[in-house]
Amino acid sequence: MGRTGIRVSRLCFGSLTLSPLQANLCVKEGAGLIERAMERGVNFLDTAELYDNYEYIKEAMKGKPRDRLVLATKTYAYTGEMAKESLKKALNETGLGYIDIFMLHEQESGLTLKGHHEAIEYFLKAREKGYIRAFGVSTHHVECVRAALEWDEIQVIHPIVNLRGLGIMDGSVDDMLEAVKAARDRGKGIYAMKPLGGGNLIRNFRECLEFVLGIPHIDSIAIGMQCDQELEANLAMFEGRPVDTETEAALSARERRLLIEPWCEGCGSCVSACRQGALYLSDGKAHVNRDRCILCGYCAANCGNFYIKVV
Ligand code: SF4
Ligand code: SF4
């Protein structure tokens, strides 16, 4: 992973999909899937405080040596105190003695990075003390990847990359790849997110994965998985083996969508949580613009009534 000294599998287990925000697997089921991925050589897992799934990781790691898993997580913390709480929560709830990669979640530009300087300073001290091994940022913005070039503190970048450029907020996929290459050339570790556009591009599963796998300056690719069929298909693609025709057909037919219950009360809390600008209020209810929605499910975390979710 760049110059961090951390070695990761090319396939990264994206855990948002199994978490309460999406498939909501029970802990035993989710942990079992993680363990089966680990048995097949996947040593890298991506999560976030928002995903609320540290318990699954703790269960999957029970009885295993700590170095079997490289764990990356993310936080929205911007003050030192908030960063401290995030790190404490991650350590306590995963039961792991350290976190491999701690990132600021959904950074946008040099300005947002500056606005998070207190949290950054905290994480750098935590790195010195060995509580984290590397510091990084996740982003949907080309501008943030470009800004990160000027920050030696940022060792890892987790950008959105997919064939169609879905979810990139300020440019094309070519713009993103140009910035990513420059960052990789500076020694940053790069692991891409949402190669299938959050599930929107699942019909083009093969084409999408071939596209990201063909990018040489990406160290690893996080793909959300919630069942063995998805795990098997991803492993086959990453190992250059043919994907079983039935499996590929089943996956291509599996479409995800955002469900907003008709009894939504129109409070607007989910609307402000969506950084893609995909939600709006009309007639006293939330509505989604499907062209902008990348099915991340982040809005679901903001509805206390659970009236909005990815299904
Ligand atoms: S947060 Fe829930 S209740 Fe409020 S607008 Fe969104 S879906 Fe409706
Ligand atoms: S509407 Fe919800 S699922 Fe869609 S992009 Fe916005 S936060 Fe993500």
Molecular structure report:
- The protein has 311 residues and is an alpha/beta fold.
- It folds into two domains: 11-253, NADP-dependent oxidoreductase domain (TIM Barrel), CATH 3.20.20; 258-310, Alpha-Beta Plaits (2-Layer Sandwich), CATH 3.30.70.
- Helices cover 35% and strands 18% of the residues.
- Strand 6 (156-159), helix 7 (173-185) and strand 7 (189-192) form a beta-alpha-beta unit.
- Helix 3 (80-94) packs across helix 5 (117-128).
- The model has no long low-confidence stretch (mean pLDDT 95).
- One iron/sulfur cluster (SF4) binds next to helix 11.
- Residues 258, 273-274, 276, 278-279, 288, 293-299, 310 line the site of one iron/sulfur cluster.
Strand arrangement in the largest pleated sheet: 1-2-3-4-5-6-7-8
What best-fitting shape do the alpha-carbon axes yield? globular
Number of strands: 12
What number of structural domains do the residues give? 2
Number of helices: 11
Radius of gyration: 18 Å
- The CATH topology of the largest domain comes to TIM Barrel
Counting helices, strands and paired strands, the structural category is: alpha/beta
Fraction in helix: 25-40%
Which whole number gives the mean pLDDT?
95
Element-level helix/strand string: EHEHEHEHHEHEHEHEHHEHEEE
Beta-strand fraction estimate: 15-25%
| CATH architectural category of the largest domain | Alpha-Beta Barrel
Largest sheet: 8 strands, parallel, barrel
What's the name of the CATH homologous superfamily of the largest domain? NADP-dependent oxidoreductase domain
The parts where pLDDT drops under 50 for at least 5 residues are none
> What is the CATH first-level class name of the largest domain?
Alpha Beta
Separation of termini?
33 Å
Bound molecule kinds, no repeats:
iron/sulfur cluster
